[in-house]
Amino acid sequence: MENLSATSEQIEELRRLFLEKVAKDGHQIDGGFHPADIERIQNREKWLRLFIEYNDLDLKKALTQLWDTCEWRKNFGTNDLEASQLRQEYLHEGFMFPKNRDINGKRLLIFRSKLYVRGTKDMDDVKRLLVYWVERVMYREEDLDQISVFFDLKDSGLSNMDMEYTRYIINLFKYYYPNSLNYIIIFEMPWILNSTLQMNATFCATFKIIKTLLPAKAVVRMKFVNGKTLHEFVDESNMLDIWGGNECYTYEFLEEETPTKSINNNVSTTGRKVHFAKLSPTESSMSDQHSPGFTMEKGTVGEEMLRVVQDTLVFNKVGTDYSGSVEIINIDLKPITYKVKTTAPDKFRVRPSSGVLAPGSTTTVNVVLVPGCQLTTLSREKFLVMCMALGADKQTNSQDIAETVEVCGVLELKMVGNVHFAKLSPTESSMSDQHSPGFTMEKGTVGEEMLRVVQDTLVFNKVGTDYSGSVEIINIDLKPITYKVKTTAPDKFRVRPSSGVLAPGSTTTVNVVLVPGCQLTTLSREKFLVMCMALGADKQTNSQDIAELWKNTPSHSHLVEQHKLKCHLPGVSHVAEVSFRNGNAFSGSSGSDSDRQLSHLVREVHDLSESVERLDARLKRNQILFFLALLAIVSFCVATLYIVKESVDNQGYCAKRDL
C-alpha cells in the first residue's frame, strides 16, 4: 500500500469534497481558512497528492486530515510566519537549520541536539522556529518536495533529550505535513558511544516510545547511523566536517532571497518600491497575481508610488491612551491601494489599516496601543506599509481591496518603520475601553448577569476515539448578546462554536474536542473563559463585524462579563500520555497490552533519567570534595616544606653565630 500513487481523478475528487465542505461548514471556522491555503487547494495538485497518498488513497481520511491541517495552519499563522516574528537568539543559535541534501537530493533539516538543553528555552518559540523552517524549506524553496530530518546526537546527553520537543516534531509531520519525510536520520546515537548502563537503557526506552508514536510508514524511514555508515544516506559532498566530512561549515542565518510569499509558491515577481522619508530602502518583490476585477500596473513616477512621511512611529499619551500616527502620500499618477501590517497585531489598533488613495492624495494612519500591553517590550515591534498601483478599472469595494492585497502578499519594502515611545515610564498604563463602529454595547438589564453558564467544570468523556466535552450557555438578558470562548491552550482544543450572537432567552451548546498529540495528565491544569457583551438595538450579526468587535474590546473591559471553567477527565489520574489521531489512540488508561507497555516505558524513562541525574549530581559533589581535599593536601605539603626550610635556615644561622 505504501507505493500507491494518487490519480488525477482522485485529486480532483478530494478538491471537490473539500470545497463542498467549506461551503457547508466553513462558517464554523472563525474568520475562514487562510486564502493562501484555499488557493493552494484549488491550484496545486502536488499538495493534495501528499494527503491522498499518505492515507493510502482513502479520500475520507485525506479530507479529514486536509481540513484539520488548514484549520491548524490558520490558527498557527503559518502562511504569515516570517523570520522577524521569531525569537532572534533562537534563530541565530544554530540548534535547528537546513543545510545540504541527502543521497536522494532531498534537503536536510538538521537538529543539533548538543546545542539544545531541555528546559532552557520557551517551547512555543521553539515550535514557531520549527514551523518557520519547514514552511520556508519545503513550501517556498523546494516546491513541496520531501525533506529529511537529521538528528545530530553527537556529544549529546540526557539533558539534551526533550520528549515534549521530540513528540511535537513527530506530530507536526504526522498530522500537518503528511508524506513529507524522505528519511529520519539519527546520527551517533549515544548508546553507541556511551558505556553507562542507565544512559543506554534511557535512550533505548526513549526511542521505543518514539517508534510507538510514529506511523508504520515513518518507522521504516528511520535510520540509525554513525560516522562509518552515514555515507549510505548522505554522500561525502554533503557531509559537514562535524560528521567526518570535508565541508567546514559554521551556521549563519541567511534571509530568504525572496521574502514575499505568493499563494502558490511558484509565481513570477517584479520589483517595486515604497519610500520612507530619509531612508534608503531596498527593493523587494511583488507578486503579479491579483483578484478578479483589478488591473495592477507599474507606478509612473520613477520607481516610487507611496511616500511615508516619517520612518519612526512616535507614541504619546493622550488621555489614558498611547497613540501615534503616520502620514502617507500617493505620489503616483494612478490610484493605489495600501495596507498596514505589524509584527504584533494583538497589541495595536490601526485605523485605517487599508484603503485606496487617489493620485496626489494623503491620508493619516492612526495607531492606538490596546490595553494590557507592557510598554517596555514594544520598542521591538515593527510596522510595514505596503501598496500596489491600480489600473483604470479600479474598484473601491473594501472587500475586493482586502482580498487583493492579502492574496498577492505584496511586500513592497523590507525596511520598516520603528516604534518609538515618547516620554513613557516603563510601567503599564491603564487604557480606555474602545469598540468598533457600528455597535452599541450596553450593560445587561437582568441584575448584573447577562449570560448563564450551566456548569463551572468542563467534563471530558471518551466518545469513540475522541475526548470531548460540552457546556450549555443561556442568554438571560433582555437584549441580544455576543459571546466568545477562550482557553489557556488554544493548540490543544477545538471549540465549536467559539463565538456568536445569542438572542434574549436563547441557548446554545459549545462543544470542545481534544486535539491530537496532547497529554491527558496535564488536562486538569487548563482553563476556559466564556465572555459576553450586550449588543444594542442596532446590533449586527455579521461574523466579521462580531470578530472585529471582540478584537477591539479588551477582555478586562467593564463591558465584558466573564465566566471561568475548569477541565476534568473522570477516571484518568494515572495516564502517562495520550497521542491520538483519526482512530488511533495511545492511552495509559486503556487495557490493551501496547498501552500498558507504552505507559511502562514512559515511567521507565522517567525513573532512569532521575537516577542518572542523581548520579551526575553526586559525581559533581565528589569532584568538588576531591578538589578541595587535593587543595588542602597541597597546601599542607607546601606549608610543611616552608616550615622545614625555615627551621634548617635558622639552625645554620645559629651554628655560624656560635663559631
TrEMBL record:
UniProt protein name: Putative phosphatidylinositol transfer protein pdr16
GO CC annotation terms, alphabetical: endomembrane system; endoplasmic reticulum-endosome membrane contact site
Transmembrane segments: 624-644
Record keywords: Membrane, Transmembrane, Transmembrane helix
Lineage: superkingdom: Eukaryota
Domain MSP per the UniProt entry, residue ranges: 293-411, 438-568
Keyword Signal among UniProt keywords: no
CRAL-TRIO domain boundaries: 83-251
InterPro entries assigned: CRAL-TRIO_dom, CRAL-TRIO_dom_sf, CRAL/TRIO_N_dom_sf, ER-organelle_contact, Ig-like_fold, MSP_dom, PapD-like_sf
A Pfam family reported for this protein in Swiss-Prot or TrEMBL: CRAL_TRIO
